[in-house]
Amino acid sequence: MPIRGERINLREIRKEDLQDILDLRNNIDGSSIARNVPPTSTYEEFLNSHNKSELSFDREYGFFAIETNDTKEFVGRMTFSYMGPRFCADIGIGIKESFWGKGYGHEAHELLLKFLFHNMGLQMVNWRTWSENHGSLKLAIKSGYTITVRSREAIFIDGKLCDYIGLQILREEYYERHPELVDNLQKI
Ligand SMILES: CC(C)(COP(=O)(O)OP(=O)(O)OC[C@H]1O[C@@H](n2cnc3c(N)ncnc32)[C@H](O)[C@@H]1OP(=O)(O)O)[C@@H](O)C(=O)NCCC(=O)NCCS
Predict the structure, then answer these.
(1) Residue in 64, 60, 75, 50 with CA at minimum distance from that of residue 3
(2) What is the β-pairing status of strands 88-95 and 124-130?
(3) Averaged pLDDT, groups of 10, the chain, 188 residues long
(4) 187: DSSP letter
(5) Which atom of ligand 1 is found nearest the CA of 101?
(6) What domains does the chain contain, in order, with CATH numbers?
(7) Ligand 1 atom 22 nearest Cα
(8) C-beta 131 within 6 A of ligand 1
(9) Would the pTM of this model clear 0.90, i.e. be above it?
(10) Which of 7, 53, 93, 162 is deepest in the core (most CB within 10 A)?
């Protein structure tokens, strides 16, 4: 069952999404923090790993396609990983370049945050990026993250040394920003 938003849904990855996701991954401008390593994914490798996975998410990892509600167009992908039960997860996002700047990234990100805090009961969510990725930083800060790590000149991207930036949002910070939601979990 998809996670439904106003303009987009997060749904399971289907075989017909694989080429779109590979195109995102193997496009140096559209890839995320992995852009400092050479692209390695071929369609066959990707198909293999897709065929092995029974579900789009489990307790440690989730991988979703972002699609428009009305026209069912592929907009991008969202992931969560390193999830410890009831504790934390890292979020990743990639939006197709033709959809940048239209608010889809923000909507998809808010949908996943709600899923992780409200449905999965996490304590914190992490975001990893670098100093020159202004869109990524803006997206995280717009949703209430705080910069908690800055490793200077730790990543070599686009021909220059950039700072690695780690951001976090805690459960209580998320609920403070969302008074329409009631946190039913007991405080740790
Ligand atoms: C980063 C990314 C996900 C943003 O997605 P998007 O759909 O374009 O973002 P939105 O349209 O929802 O914009 C959210 C906010 O970020 C701002 N923003 C988006 N891209 C920006 C950019 N390149 N520079 C500065 N601000 C930017 C928007 O103006 C908006 O802020 P506002 O509401 O105050 O105006 C998208 O550019 C992308 O997929 N980039 C490549 C992969 C990547 O870097 N992923 C991040 C993981 S490290």
Answers:
(1) 64
(2) parallel
(3) 95 94 81 60 86 81 95 95 83 95 98 96 95 96 98 91 97 98 90
(4) P
(5) 11
(6) 3-177 (3.40.630.30)
(7) 135
(8) no
(9) yes
(10) 93
